[in-house]
Amino acid sequence: MSQDSLLVNEKGARTGKLVITSSLLKGPVPKPWLTQPARYSWVPRYLFLLICSLGLLGGAFQIYFGLKSVPKLGNVCLVLDEQFDGDSLDTSIWTREVALDGWGNGEFEWSTDSGNNSRVEDGMLYIVPTLTEDVIGHDNVFDGYNLTLNDCTSGNSTTCWVYSNATAGTIINPVQSARLSTRLSRSVKYGRIEVRARLPRGDWLWPAIWMMPKDSMYGPWPRSGEIDIIESRGNGPSYPAQGSDWLSSTLHWGPAPLLDGYWRTTGWWNDKHLTFDEGFHTYTLEWDDKFL
Q: Domain GH16: where (predicted)?
C-alpha cells in the first residue's frame, strides 16, 4: 500500500484501513461508437442474409429437380371404380377365396365366403375375423373333427380339408376371415391403383393389400412376382416387431421360394403421431415398364 492510502491515528500510528476516493464525471460523456460506427459493421448482417438466401435457393432447386426426376405415368384408362355402394358384395367383380392353406405364410385362418367375415354396409366393405369355435365348438377345433370345404376355391385339394387330432398336434384353423380377389374379373398391367382403407386393430391381425399374377407365366411363386401394396399389423405401437403405426411395401421375385429377393425390395413407413387403424388412408401404387 502507498503512504497516501492509509489513515493515521492521533499518535501517528498507521491504522491499516484503505481509503478509496472517487470522482464523478461532469458534463456529457463522449460515446464516439454511436456516431461513428465501426468500419464494415454491415458485413455480418448482409452475410447472414446471403447465407439464408442461398439456403432457400438451394432448397428450391432440390425440390424442383426432385419433383422433375419422379417418373410420371402416361395416359391411363379406368379399369375399376368400386365404391361399395350396393347392398351386398358385387360377385361379378369380387371372388371370395375359400381355403385352409394359410396362403403360404403359416396363417391360421380359414378364409370363408360367409357374410360374417366380409360384407358391404353403408357404402363400405367390412372384413371381419371371427372364431371357428363359434361355428363348430371349442373341443372340435382341437380333436376329433373332420372339416371338408365343399366350396373350396383352391386348386390344391390338400388345402380344402383338415382333421383335428390332439395326438398329432393338428387343429382346425381357429380363426375365420376373408380373402377377396378380382383375379377372375379384372386385371391390370401398368397403371395407378388406389385403395382407401382403415386398417384393423387387434393382436395377431395382419391386413394386406396384394397384387398377384393373373397367369403365372414365368412359373410358380415367386417366379411370376408379387406386388404387396401395403402390409401392416393390428398390434399396438408398443409391439416390438412393428405394430399398427408401421406399414411396409414389398416386391417378391426370384427363381425359388428360398431365393426370394424381397429383402432387397422392401420399404417401411412409420407414422410418429397416429396409427393406421385410427382413420382412413389412401394407399397408392404407380406402375409402368420403367418404375414402381
A: 63-292
Cell of 119: 360384407
Q: Cell digits for 283?
A: 394407399
pTM: 0.76
* CA 91 – CA 184 distance, rounded (Å): 10
- The fold of the 187-292 domain, in CATH, is Jelly Rolls (2.60.120)
Instruction: Evaluate whether 165 touches 172 at the Cβ level (below 8 Å).
Output: no
169: left (phi over 0), alpha (psi -120 to 50) or beta: left
Q: Which residues contact 112 (CB under 8 A, 6 or more apart)?
A: 96, 98, 176, 177, 178
Q: What is the pLDDT, as a whole number, of residue 1?
A: 46
Query: Could you list the active site residues?
Result: 226, 231
Distances 130 to 34, 117, 160, 255 between C-alpha atoms, Å: 82, 7, 19, 36
- Exposure class string for 139-178: b at 16+ Cβ within 10 A, else e: ebbbeebebebeebbbeeeebbebebeeeeeebbbebbbb
Closest CA to 278 of 199, 187, 171: 199
pLDDT band at 3 (very low <50, low <70, confident <90, very high): very low
Phi, psi of 134 (to 5 degrees): -70, -15
Mean pLDDT, residues 96-116 taken together: 90
Neighbour-count burial of 234, counting CB atoms closer than 10 A to its CB (0-12 exposed, 13-18 middle, 19+ buried): buried
Could you tell me the CA-to-CA distances from 161 to 116, 130, 158 in Å, in that order? 21, 19, 6
Residues 242, 232: Cα–Cα separation, whole Å:
8
Domains in the chain: boundaries:
37-69, 94-179, 187-292
Radius of gyration of the CA atoms of the chain, in A: 37
Whether 100 and 162 have beta carbons less than 8 Å apart is answered as: yes
pLDDT in tens, 61-97: 999 888 888 777 778 889 999 999 999 999 999 999 9
